[in-house]
Amino acid sequence: xxxxxxxxxxxxSSVVVYLLAFFAHTAEWxxxxxxxxxxxxEERELxxxxxGGSSGSSETVVSREALTREIEGELxxxxxxxxxxxxxxxxxxxxxxxxxxxxxxxxxxxRGPWGNMxxxxxxxxxxxxxxxxxxxxxxxxRWLGLPVTLLATVGNGLAxxxxxxxxxxxxPALHSVWFLIxxxxxxxxxxxxxxxxxxxxLYILKKRAEDRGTxxxxxxxxxxSRRIDLLTYRFHAFAFPLWTFTVAAGAIWAEYAWGRYWxxxxxxxxxxxxxxxxxxxxxxxxTAGWRGNKAAVIAIIGMASFWFNFIGVNxxxxxxxxxxxx
Amino acid sequence: MTDTxxxxxxxADNPEEPRPERAGPDLPRLGLRGTLRFLWAQLTSMRxxxxxxxxxxxxxxxxxxxxxxxxxxxxxxxxxxQHPTLGPLYDKVGLFSVYSSPWFSAVYLLLFVSLxxxxxxxxxxxFRALRAEPPRTPRNLRRLPAYATAEVSAAGxxxxxxxxxxxxxxxxxxxxVVEGPGGASVAAERGYLRxxxxxxxxxxxxxxLLGVAVGALWGYRGSSVVVVGQGxxxxxxxxxxxxxxxxxxxxxxxxxxxxxxxFQVAFExxxxxxxxARLFRADVAVTDKPGDPVRSEVLEVNHPLHVDGxxxxxxxxxxxxxxxxxxxxxxxxxxGPVVFLPQDGNFTSAGVVxxxxxxxxxxAFQGFFLPSAVVDAQGPRSVFPxxxxxxxxxxxxxxxxxxxxxxxxxxxxxxxxxxxxxRNEKGDIVRLRLSPGQxxxxxxxxxSITFDGWNRWVKLQVxxxxxxxxxxxxxxxxxxxxxxxxxxRPRRVWVRVSxxxxxxxxxxxxxxxxxxxxxxxxxxxxxxxxEVGGLDRADARGGLTDDVDDLAATLAGAPEVTAREKSGAxx
Lengths: 326, 571
Fold this sequence. Notes:
The complex is a heterodimer of chains A (326) and B (571).
Chain A: H1 3-51, H2 56-109, H3 117-139, H4 145-163, H5 177-212, H6 217-221, H7 225-258, H8 266-285, H9 293-316
Helix pairs in contact in A: 1-2, 1-4, 2-3, 3-4, 3-5, 5-7, 5-9, 7-8, 8-9
Chain B: H1 31-43, H2 46-60, H3 62-65, H4 73-82, H5 86-92, H6 102-131, E1 146-152, H7 154-157, H8 160-170, E2 174-180, E3 183-190, H9 192-218, E4 220-227, E5 231-233, E6 241-244, E7 257-267, E8 277-287, E9 294-300, E10 305-307, E11 310-327, E12 332-337, E13 341-342, E14 349-355, E15 362-370, E16 373-376, E17 379-382, E18 391-399, E19 420-421, E20 431-434, E21 439-442, E22 447-464, H10 468-487, E23 491-498, H11 502-505, H12 513-516, E24 528-536, H13 544-556, H14 559-562
Antiparallel strand pairs in B: 1-24, 2-3, 3-23, 4-6, 4-22, 5-7, 7-8, 8-9, 10-11, 11-12, 11-22, 13-14, 14-15, 15-18, 16-17, 18-19, 18-20, 21-22, 23-24
């Protein structure tokens, strides 16, 4: 049986399915646009009705208009719900495909599938989507579907088109138990940082809409900025100690492999830069004048730094961590 | 007990800290002490810490994009050669050695000073807080973020507080019974470990710096190229390069000896990642100190050798062609392996064979060893890292014998001063191309050279980083502290039993239950109301409302009836 082949097919299919899921969530956002608008109008009507409640006739007129709107709203609401469900179902399907892809890759290589950029990316995307699906199940986080499916499409898409390398054994430098420890920690913390980063973007959008009083459409359906901020913090609070551990485990491994625990290799440097930026984020959240938007921007910079460390350092800068194989 | 626990006392945000006014033209002068205090307050403020953290992140970046001297000196030289204007400028501001530059050091030292200034006062505050009792019960529990009530009969009300104490202790709260104007109540607090974790994390960073400093001051690291079959003795003269800390003494090198008996290497021959390394394995014989028995060890990547406190790593390998040179008088002037340095991934290796003892003229050969040689439009080059078709390509130089100066010279490069390149009868430059076993005579009776075969060499890195265990422990503490400071949820809970009627307890929006509990001791046998209020002091997790509701229900003794009932929601 050719695991490598089935793995590739499953991953390419997962990109397509994630893309469809992304379209479904886009449709969900788009139909939510109307729902939000009608809800706002409805509230205003109700207020008017309450004030002018003394006259019976106007009340009936208003309530008839309100009824029509309510029905329209109900229909749009149902559409939103439908697209949302389709999106989640497609995401689950895409997730299964990408799990098959990763497992197949591991079987084909006979080791943990984290030996190069391609394998790291597909594993990280499984972690991201798994985190998202668990949150959908446990905490009703479906509103995160659009950015997560976008990330999964782009991530797996880049993997199968740009990063792809055929299955090969590892170079001797990667023959170590730390391979498992260091990289699995990096995958999980990276996934959490990415979800945190997406949440930060949503936070900024939502906060801006709240401040301007223009919360409508999809933004009306996601939780308030305060709750998004809290969720963002939780993802980062989970990822940060794990990232600290990742860097430390990398240092221990470097001591075994290269005889020094820290050598300012570009990858090490950028791991530290990323760490420091997230330390900034955590400090900013408890500093007056830095909470909210500024902290969210720092979290997004942290995510950018993580991505640069992953893609930029692997492809643009020469260093000891040259395992991309691209 | 104040809120200083959450707000670090050392930070300038603290209103209790004397904070000098910003120096303006009309303000009284600060004086030296005042200025120092002002600067200290500024340095240790959270904002400064944030700015310094940012500065650290930004300052670390150029070192990853511009070649660094301590990593690849050759690339630095190339960079300077390619950028005649920028290069020297970069050099002047330390961009080729960012991590030891004054400005980078300044950033992290300031950061650590700021850290000390921040945590020292906090340690004091924390220890005072540890001894403090939970804060008094607020008058109005309804104003707290979480609030729940439950009804209990007058008979059952007697031991509610006792049960609250037991229950909260079971949930690992610190509990105290407060006697107040409205009667007794229970105040409880937990989550003291959050701040402890925070402090442990920051102290660990100092410990980490200490560990790194110890390693930098007493540690050493050097490398030595050893041809297979030969050995390495741990003394300063045997190192090709040695970097050591300021307080390192050469006499502290342990006198061990390592002989490389065999070195196996394998490369990928399949279609995927052709030429990638697959195996490095050196069999070595180690003598811990002169006179000790020899022990056999295997040295691999990721499996360093530990000898008497030092570690020996296998960090590189290459080819050493074995040549024999006879001089013009027919004597063997040189014979043995010569280390050639790899220039690319396929081990196109460059090197020099120096024969200073050849007579009448001294000789030198400069050129390439190619493990799998091809000659094409790009000239001679190697197409695979393993030795499938090894060949040597050499130019020959000769010159009058030179006086031995005793000055060290680079064995890998040839100083052609005083030498001329050999030419054949037609006047063309002599270019030798040799396969193993092949030899050739040099023109003008200068002698001959034979390419006897090839050997491999390994690069051993020997070093000791004394502070590493400290740094490792520091990181362990840091991660543990970090987890505590991020996941422990400090929380305060208060419980009070109100007498009188229920409606009074849930009265007006601001009417405290105090009005209802004004009567000391219940006069009637009507139901009592248990009030539970809760406050989360860090927003790491939710669930406060549920927990408070559950506590109220538990104390009332009938969770299924009252679990979700809130005050005012009752008929």
